[in-house]
């Protein structure tokens, strides 16, 4: 049961990453590699501040700002210096690797002995007076884990609702239109370059938030933890789109969250059944490949079937 | 309202693909005037419109709109003065956003876009009323994605968007050329109605001779990046499509003459 709770919690935390990827990939159609570096940046900044005695909330907020700054740099490289979008992200991601090492001072910061948001959530759980464990479906469930899960879920839902509200404002609508039709948004008086930069800042702020919470949940920040995260987020977005659809903005946001949680659960089950953890990224990449090509393949098959039926 | 002074633009300068698009254009447009711009392919008519809109910076010359020297203003800054409709019906609207959201974007053209809800306030009723004037039944589909509409419907909405806030200058770039004849007729009628109602200072590029003689109070003909004819007043009203076609033919023959005359001179003297 603890394994499932842990998978759920990590899935919920990483849904913030999926929301970030949703913004860059789906709203701006910008393949933003910066995310790989900003996951770690968020983790590094929050961990370094927390072990230096900062309040976890303050540390997490600063991590978000750091992530947003990194995203803005990618945006400026792309829109002001006209560097290819993919390359802009790779440049910032590469630079962030060194920056992250500087921030952490070493390649790994453990946070086992300091208070983080997990400690707070645990205290909240203890304050409910439910004791050490509750029984769920006949199994004992640790109240501490349950409290962390609940707090994370509420937080992520609040972030998603705020995002949804933002994308319905004048500024947010202009951002969505920029990804849809930059020519049109210029003709209506908004700088598409500024919109992309702001959008990437928002996206990477969310990704850094995911990194900061993940580090606190796992109890350590590691300089390698961002590797493969972009594909991971993309896989979540794709699963979400398949589950909930792409019709409305709310569906996309909810889909990214469900996709992330489901994907994490699937991975946990696969690992439990003996999947070699080293193969995880290979399988994730393969999955995303299939998800990207299958809509086209299915269309092809559908187009072919009536013709064949006629011949038969 | 618009004052274009001796603007020049050469694309791909110094390469084999060098194109001298605008070669010293002077054009003054009075407030409330509806100017039709015609010219053969490559004459620079769309380039002229694009120069005014800020799609690129001119190499030489100066552009004033409504008393502002906008020569070095980027496109999005000029949008505070200029409303535009493009040739491609897909260029003027965001396909994945709803009709209402697209109109809401237009309601902030050239203004600060803040954190207030885009579809709040009395905007919705205003949208219903305005969209109804198109007579296309779109008022019941305000929440549908614009991508699901036909080219003509999208172009009519783009026109509404460009004029939602009264622009100092309305630029129409062959905005009916990509439509079927029926939609084209519908869109040009709506155009004429809105321009007349709001007395908009308008520049319309077209390659329909019929539109060129029917609409507007002034007609400018471009050839090889220069203005070669400028009809206004009674002269413009008397114009028929045949007159314009005859003038085009004249220009074409003059071009041929240039080439053959040059050849003659080359053979004799070089």
Question: Can you put this structure into words, describing what you see?
Answer:
The complex is a heterodimer of chains A (312) and B (270). Chain A has one domain (2-227). Helix content of chain A is 77%, strand content 4%. Chain A is mostly helical and 312 residues long. A two-stranded antiparallel ribbon of chain A has the order 1-4. A two-stranded antiparallel ribbon of chain A has the order 2-3. With 270 residues, chain B is an alpha/beta fold. Chain B has one domain: P-loop containing nucleotide triphosphate hydrolases (Rossmann fold). In chain B, 38% of the residues lie in helices and 23% in strands. Chain B contains nine helices and ten strands. In chain B, the strands form two sheets. Chain B has a six-stranded mixed sheet with strand order 6-7-8-3-9-10, with helices on both faces. A four-stranded antiparallel sheet of chain B has the order 2-1-4-5, covered by helices on one side. In chain B, a hairpin with a 2-residue loop joins strand 9 (218-223) and strand 10 (226-232). In chain B, helix 5 (151-163) runs parallel beside helix 6 (181-198). Chain A binds chain B through residues 165-166, 168-174, 176-177, 180-181, 183-192, and chain B through 53, 74-77, 79-80, 82, 84, 86, 90-97, 101-102, 104-106, 108-111, 113-119, 161-162.
